[in-house]
Every structure is written in structure tokens, then in C-alpha cells.
Design goal:
It contains one helix and 16 strands.
């Protein structure tokens, strides 16, 4: 007889996995986390972009003020300002100074070197003069004539180190007067025009044109210096660059006033970025402005 054995019932094995509902919950959480991170990155990008645009606007305003302050403060009023406009000024700016070391005939002048072992050089240039500039010499005169006389430069070159007055030799278009003697101070001036101009990219910039030394104004191609600035308009409260002129009594001068009356020039620069940013829920463009009153030193 065989004994019958009873087998235990088979228990079906359960496979590990996730349900569709669990997958949906995980995807929702991942999407929420990703959206939060993405929104944070977008806000940070907007913040840094806005900060960059604001710094760029402030840098443009600062550049305009510094450039114009230097030339206007030291401009030569003996040669007058040739253009008084709300968005442009044409003037003679000092680019260097020296003293007469010796003379070579009536139109040749020797100048000392711009460097010295002792550090007390008598010649200094912002830029080297050339044939488009003017030299202004101080006269040793008691006859009541002007203390300064102007001569157009026709040549400027370095002198050999072995010369009696090593440094530079200056050639003039007209002879010096007898009142200009050895040791007389000499200044070098350059005629130029600063203006707000509309560039090909549709923006407004501060530009510079170099103009002819004598005669009617004729200026070369404009060179951009800084910007962009707010668009030009006739409203002095909103235009990108504004020049205002005053006499010694603080009275505002009109474009037809005598340039010899100028004692102060007020310059206002207003920069505005073309990029728009969101600040406290409001879409705006980063902007900055500054005004400086420049007293003319050489009146």
C-alpha cells in the first residue's frame, strides 16, 4: 500500500513594482520641483541682467561727465567756444604745455624733453600735437596787447638727443613776435566738437569730431565715446545729453550770446538701457542720470 502525501497549496509570488498612481505622484513632484528650480533660475537671470544693465547705464553717465569735465574745465577761452547748442559744444581744448627752449629763425621753436631724470619735465602732452593744432605763446609785453598769441602748427618732430635743447622742434605757419622769448610758456590746443548723435543701431551716443584749427568750422567723422543715452528731444528734462551755459553772474546764456561771457557750463547726462526688466512687478528699463556744473578755469 502506498501512503498518500498531501502537498501544501502553492502561494503565487508577488513581483516588486509601482502602480500607475504612484508613477503619477512621482512625476507631479518632480515637475513641481523642476518648475520651482527653473523659476528661481529665471529670476536670478533677470536680476543679474538688470544689475548689469544698470551698471552699464551708470558707467555711461560717469564716462560722459568725466570726459566733458576735463576738456570744458581746461578749455581755452582766448579762442572762444565756437558752438553753443543744447546737445553739442565745440571748443578749443588744451592738449599739452611746454616752454620755449630756443628759437630757430622766425618760425622754428625748440621745446624741452617730456622726460627728465629728476622728474621735473617742463613738457607734457595728453596727445602729441600735429599740423591740425594751434600753439599759443605767452608774450612778455607791457604795451597793452593780448598776453597770448596764436600760431598754427605746420610741423612737430623729436629733436636729436645731442642738440643744444633736446626734446622737440616746432614749426609755425607765421613768425613769432619779438615779445615771445626764451622761457615763455606755450600751450597746445585742439579744436573739437562733442555732441549727442544718432548711430546706425538706432541708439544715441556721445561722440567727438576733430575740427580744423582755423577758419570756418569743418569737422571730421564722428567717433563714439560713450553711451548709449536716452533719445534726443527738445525737452531739457528728458533729453539724453544737455549743455547749459551761464555767465559769471549765473545768468543763462542763449545760443546767440557772446562766447567770451561763458563762465560755467552745466552738463546733464541721462542713460537708459534698451533692455526691459521686471522690478517689483513693473516692467521698466534701467536708467541713471547725473548733472555737473563745470567752472571754466582759464577765464
Amino acid at each position: 500500500m502506498f501512503a498518500l502525501t498531501q502537498r501544501a497549496p502553492r502561494v503565487p509570488l508577488r513581483r516588486a513594482g509601482v502602480t500607475l498612481a504612484e508613477v503619477a505622484v512621482v512625476l507631479a513632484l518632480v515637475g513641481l520641483l523642476g518648475g520651482t528650480v527653473g523659476l528661481t533660475l529665471i529670476r536670478q537671470q533677470r536680476f543679474y541682467r538688470g544689475t548689469t544693465e544698470l551698471l552699464h547705464a551708470r558707467e555711461g553717465v560717469r564716462d560722459a561727465i568725466e570726459l566733458l569735465s576735463t576738456d570744458i574745465r581746461g578749455m581755452s577761452t582766448a579762442d572762444t567756444v565756437r558752438l553753443l547748442a543744447d546737445s553739442a559744444i565745440e571748443l578749443f581744448a588744451n592738449i599739452g604745455s611746454s616752454v620755449v627752449c630756443d628759437t630757430n629763425g622766425a618760425t622754428g621753436v625748440g621745446l624741452p624733453s617730456a622726460s627728465s631724470v629728476r622728474g621735473n619735465a617742463l613738457t607734457a602732452f595728453l596727445v602729441q600735437p600735429d599740423t591740425g593744432d594751434i600753439a599759443v605763446f605767452h608774450r612778455n609785453s607791457l604795451d597793452g596787447q593780448s598776453e597770448w598769441e596764436r600760431h598754427r602748427i605746420t610741423g612737430f618732430a623729436a629733436r636729436a638727443p645731442g642738440a643744444a635743447c633736446p626734446g622737440f622742434v616746432l614749426d609755425l605757419a607765421t613768425p613769432l613776435s619779438a615779445q615771445v622769448r626764451t622761457g615763455a610758456p606755450v600751450r597746445f590746443i585742439r579744436r573739437g566738437r562733442y555732441s549727442l548723435y544718432h548711430a546706425s543701431d538706432g541708439r544715441w551716443y556721445l561722440g567727438y569730431r576733430r575740427c580744423n584749427a582755423v577758419g570756418a568750422s569743418s569737422c571730421g567723422a564722428i567717433q563714439p565715446l560713450s553711451g548709449p543715452y536716452r533719445d534726443y528731444n527738445s525737452n531739457p528734462r528728458s533729453t539724453g545729453l544737455l549743455f547749459e551755459y551761464f555767465d559769471a553772474s549765473g545768468i543763462r546764456l542763449t545760443p546767440g550770446s557772446s562766447p567770451f561771457a561763458i563762465a560755467r557750463v552745466d552738463v546733464t547726462a541721462r542713460a537708459e538701457s534698451k533692455q526691459r526688466i521686471v522690478v517689483e512687478g513693473r516692467v521698466t528699463a534701467p536708467r541713471d542720470s547725473a548733472t555737473v556744473a563745470i567752472a571754466i578755469r582759464n577765464r
